[in-house]
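Late entry, evening session. Most of the bench is empty. Finally got around to the prediction I had been postponing all week. Sequence below, unchanged from the version circulated by S.P.
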Amino acid sequence: MTQSSSPTCAPCIVSSGIVVNRCDIHRLLCDLGQVRYFDVVDDAVVTSGTGYIMEVFSDSQCATVAIGRTLYINVCSFDYLQLSTDLEQQVTFDLVQESRTLRLMPISSSIDGDLLSNHDAHALEEAVAEVLAASFDAHADNCNDWREFDKQDRGSEGRQ
């Protein structure tokens, strides 16, 4: 009897689980915003702080850096991401590499507010880009109008 090869479904993680795909890890971390972070080595907190996730990237040549109030997270620095949710619905993101864990706990109280502000920032960027493009087009049109005027003016001067 032969087994039919059925397509494998992508994992579905709700509230807790382990994520190994770097694209999935990137998607989960890139919009966290402000977080409390804990650098845990051999089950002991070595350092902790509060900061903003400035960038999430994937580059085997670069480090993950947490300095001051900023975090630059390289998903290649970790073996997997473990998600967990406590009784108060606080989500914890544990980035694990052997005996070291970088624990991230989002500070924002409302994900809707964060998504809205990210959406507003994106909308603002688009609006500014449109205004700048329109201004550039108007300037280019104005320059073309002056060039035409100069050509006509020079042509009429030569006829006099």
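Two things to note before I forget:
The radius of gyration is 27 Å.
The chain has two domains: 17-108, 110-160.
Will write this up properly tomorrow.
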